[in-house]
Amino acid sequence: MTATATAVRGPVVSASARSAVAYTARRTGVTIGTILLSLVVLLALWQLAISTTQIPSFIAKGPADVWRYFTQDGDGGTSAAHRATLFKLLGVTLQDASIGFLVGVPLSVLVSVAFTMFRPVEFMFMPVAMLLRTVPLLAMAPVIYIIFGNGAITAALIGTVVVFFPLLVNVTVGLRSVSQQSVDLVRVYGGSRFTVLRKVAVPTALPHFFASMRIAVPGAITGAMLYEYLFTTTGLGAAVPAAKAAFDYQLIWASTVFVTIVSVVLYTITAIIEAAVLSEWGPDAGKAVGR
């Protein structure tokens, strides 16, 4: 009778699962609400700047102008053609950005783990990494281009530079921010350095990792657009100087808004994934070793 009643009621959701779902929903709601509020403020400031400056309307475009570019036909072409053009350019830019992102993220995590596990490696290479970080990307990009030429390798390296350093620093700090009591507990039960890394350091570093990922996702797009702006004739980065040469300021403003929206969407997706992952570990990630 009890088994039948249980089958009728269906699976019982545990309290920890309900707490994880509630945490994820709360963090997601806060993130989306904050972003929407920021966008409203940004649009208001944008319109205010356009209205109060003396820049000719031929050059300066407001939110309503960009909206009409996406939704209404005009002398410059149809709205469908405008959207198709921007989506085509976006596809190229996202492809270039994904190359740097997929190389930079794993590489930075592996180097951070090496720094944490083997201190001499950090003493040898962290100063070099910080020195390279001080070099402006705009100055480094031509050097990369001269050495590797135009192509996927150059796009990967420029994107990797943007993604690598924020992740390297933050993940290394996260891996080092372990509770000494938790480390001692693992060691008492015979755990090795790799056990400490898996049971304590990695959970502790998760908030640092995702904080860096929220920077890395739009940063990868920025790196891709810089690569396109300097060395190619495709993608959103190359479309801006081409549109400027053709006095197509509508396309410039629309491209800027479009890539901003895409970056915000990707940022939001990253924040939602972060909330879902951290809901498993909770705000005290890494302070307990029972997982």
Automatic annotation (TrEMBL):
Where can this protein be found? Cell membrane
List where the protein spans the membrane: 28-49, 97-118, 130-148, 154-175, 251-273
Which SUPFAM superfamilies does this one have?
MetI-like
Q: Does the keyword Membrane apply?
A: yes
**CDD domains per the UniProt record, alphabetical:** TM_PBP2 (cd06261)
Give the source's domain of life in one word. Bacteria
Family designation: Belongs to the binding-protein-dependent transport system permease family.
Gene3D superfamilies tied to this protein? MetI-like (1.10.3720.10)
Q: Which PROSITE patterns match?
A: ABC_TM1
By what name is this protein known? ABC transmembrane type-1 domain-containing protein
Keywords assigned by UniProt, alphabetized: Cell membrane, Membrane, Transmembrane, Transmembrane helix, Transport
The UniProt entry lists membrane topology as: Multi-pass membrane protein
Annotated ABC transmembrane type-1 domain ranges read: 86-270
